[in-house]
Specification:
This protein is about 5% helix and about 65% strand. The chain contains one helix and 14 strands, in the order E-E-E-E-E-E-E-E-H-E-E-E-E-E-E. It has an eight-stranded antiparallel beta sheet with strand order 2-3-6-7-9-10-11-12, with no helix packed on it. Strands 1-4-5-8 form a four-stranded antiparallel beta sheet, with helices on one face. Strands 13-14 form a two-stranded antiparallel ribbon. It is elongated, with a radius of gyration of 26 Å.
Length: about 210
């Protein structure tokens, strides 16, 4: 029946709706009028997902035989992200300000819940624990202000590890930043420009086969 293949058509549409909430609580303390320290906690983001997956397609053969599919797959589930704990500090020394921040995230604490079948939900949550790991995200920067001119220059860097366990450092996200600013004497008007350069290797999967990092 399938001799003499002639044509194939497939229409694959995913309709997703996301709703969620989270909460971030922080504290900032300043002493000696030039040193600041702070900390924050971000609660897990609880995101409910409604997914409608539409498949429609057909194949045509020279024997006049054709086959088609027209179906909808519906899923409802909840995703919970991990807690995020951050500590930060800044030092302001007249014309120079330096800042640094470290954020701890345990990605193994992510989980699926909701209307998923229990075996599927358990398998997904076990895969999370087996796949992911803990990370420390580091961000730091400095600003230099040219006295009596309103001009400033900024540099910074960010290091965000890839959250998959035992992955090479080439997958970690690295960013370099730079910026310039100018403000009026009273501070009523300010203009800033910034540049961010990020670099890392990325692994993509398509049709179930891993593609080499690019």
């Amino acid at each position: 029946l399938t001799a003499g293949f002639q044509s194939f058509y497939i229409n694959d549409v995913k309709d997703w709706v996301f709703n969620g909430y989270d909460l971030r609580i922080g504290v900032l303390y300043k002493f000696f009028n030039f040193i600041g320290i702070g900390g924050s906690v971000k609660t897990p983001s609880v995101i409910s997902v409604t997914e409608n997956h539409y498949f429609r397609g057909n194949s045509q053969f020279a024997t006049s035989f054709s086959t088609q599919i027209d179906t909808v797959i519906e899923n409802k589930f909840t995703i919970q992200s991990p807690y995020e704990f951050s500590v930060a500090a800044d030092v302001n020394l007249w014309i120079i300000t330096g800042t640094a921040e470290i954020t701890y995230i345990d990605y193994t604490q992510m989980k699926f819940s909701g209307d998923l079948e229990v075996p599927e939900q358990s398998a997904l949550n076990k895969k999370i624990i087996d796949t992911y790991t803990q990370t420390f995200n580091v961000k730091m920067g400095a600003e230099f202000r040219l006295p009596f001119t309103g001009l400033s220059a900024r540099v910074g860097g960010m290091y965000i590890p890839f959250p998959v366990a035992d992955s090479p450092t080439e997958f970690d996200r690295k960013f370099l930043t730079a910026g310039l600013g100018i403000r009026s004497g009273e501070g009523a008007m300010e203009f800033n420009v910034a540049y961010v350069y990020g670099f890392w290797d990325h692994v993509a999967e398509d049709y179930g086969s891993s593609i080499q990092p690019i």
